[in-house]
Description:
Elements: H1 2-45, E1 50-66, E2 80-90, E3 96-100, H2 103-108, H3 122-138, E4 141-146, E5 155-156, H4 163-199
Parallel strand pairs: 3-5
Antiparallel strand pairs: 1-2, 1-4, 2-3, 4-5
Helix pairs in contact: 1-4
Amino acid sequence: xxxxxxxxxxxxxxxxxxxxxxxxxxxxxxxxxxxxxxxxxxxxxxxxxxxxxxxxxxxxxxxxxxxxxxxxxxxxxxxxxxxxxxxxxxxxxxxxxxxxxxxxxxxxxxxxxxxxxxxxxxxxxxxxxxxxxxxxxxxxxxxxxxxxxxxxxxxxxxxxxxxxxxxxxxxxxxxxxxxxxxxxxxxxxxxxxxxxxxxx
Length: 200
């Protein structure tokens, strides 16, 4: 009687562990799919792939401009902000080019190097832009990214999805997938050992 109860409890534990392993594998596959349709296209679409050194030539803050998100944007998404323009000397080619914060900045407003997030307090936006401008004046040389193919003549300060960020995004689903497969293998080994013991 006690043996039957132990066997039943063992089978229930194996079933739960097997369901856990399969659930982990399924969740990891969903995460892979989500990363593949969101992060990977932005990473592959970016042409600013080569790192070089940029030297600041001039930093200007123009009058307030409107964020021209004209592609299906509504009026409440358009807000005025000081337009920061940073021109740098590209070490790789020696050209004078405009610097943008990220790939997104060029899409939002190609006239400004930095587009702040929408804030209700215009003083905070102005203070942030002035702080960024003073940092560029203070640190004249810094790493930046340019397009080696020459399709884009401008440069960006940082990539939205660098290779390290892409690897980090794939790290968690990979660990979950490996853990799920390991649980399934251990359950199958346990079942095989149990059947072998019962046969003997």
